[in-house]
Amino acid sequence: MSLDDAKKTWTVAEFKAEMEPMLSASDKKLVRWIFYIYDNRNLLGALRKKADAAFDDRGVYTAEEITEICHLLYTEDRVPPRIPTPDYVVSFVRNFYIRQEEADNQEMDGLLEDSLSALYYNEAKRCQNEFLSAWFELNLNIRNVMLSVNCRKYGLEKNDYIVGNNDMAEYLRQWGSRDLNFSDAPAYLQELLQITEEPDLLVRERKTDALRWQWLEDRTFYKTFDFESVIAYLLRLEILERWMALDKALGEKTFRRLVTDMKRESANTLEEFKENNK
């Protein structure tokens, strides 16, 4: 696979179904952390009460389970005992209801998503696998950088949003109180900060995924048949599937805009014809 592939032969759901029967019980617990990312999107849709938010069935939870988790945390400040719920979900839902005024601001949607992702990656990086732990920490660092930039944009206190106590988090908390010294910063911080300056959102996302892709390549190049290579394949498949969905959505949006423009031009031409032939 390459990041520029325009054709996929396997979906994430198909790969998940093929892979799960072959995993040990301990490996299944590790892999669940990868699929929680889809639950995060479903959780945001449920909390925001977006009727048009499509439910992603690649996650761990059903729609009913997510609704029950949110309802009980809101009404009774507890989680359903029969549904194993990670701590980051509990923390985020509680904070969401506390900050409902902020959450109702549409401009804050991106900040909410970054905040949930940061909490998720901070807990996920404590999983019992060195490769996955490092992957989750990379993504935690990316989200914390994005959060820091957005907090500066919206005039918010970044220390209220930055998650974790690793080197990157501590470094970002000091950002603004002193000049950044890239010589003692994590290696990819400067690259990430340059990416955040990209005005085009899709280009910014593409560059961020290119950084992730290269990270996966570097750490599995010599691990052809290891568990890590299987997981890296899944993670790269996720990246490709997301971009193919984005490209399709963009294509449909562009097509609709072109049709609208053509109709408008046709209507204008017809009116001009009528005026000229009165």
Could you say which structural class the secondary elements and strand pairing correspond to?
mainly alpha
Question: Radius of gyration, rounded?
Answer: 22 Å
- The total strand number stands at 0
How many helix segments? Answer: 11
Helix content: 55-70%
**Poorly predicted tracts of residues:** none
Task: Characterize the overall form.
Answer: globular
Largest sheet composition = none
Through-space gap between termini = 63 Å
The proportion of strand residues reads: under 5%
* Mean of residue pLDDT values: 82
Helix and strand sequence: HHHHHHHHHHH
Write the layout of secondary structure elements.
Layout lengths: L11 H8 L5 H24 L14 H13 L11 H12 L1 H4 L5 H16 L5 H25 L12 H7 L15 H8 L4 H20 L6 H50 L2
Describe this structure in words.
The structure is a single chain. This protein is an all-alpha fold. It contains eleven helices and no strands. It has helices at residues 12-19, 25-48, 63-75, 87-98, 100-103, 109-124, 130-154, 167-173, 189-196, 201-220, 227-276. The chain is globular and about 45 Å long. The model has no long low-confidence stretch (mean pLDDT 82).
Features of the shown structure:
278 residues; mainly alpha; 11 helices
Give a concise summary.
The chain has helices spanning 12-19, 25-48, 63-75, 87-98, 100-103, 109-124, 130-154, 167-173, 189-196, 201-220, 227-276. It has 278 residues and is mainly alpha-helical.
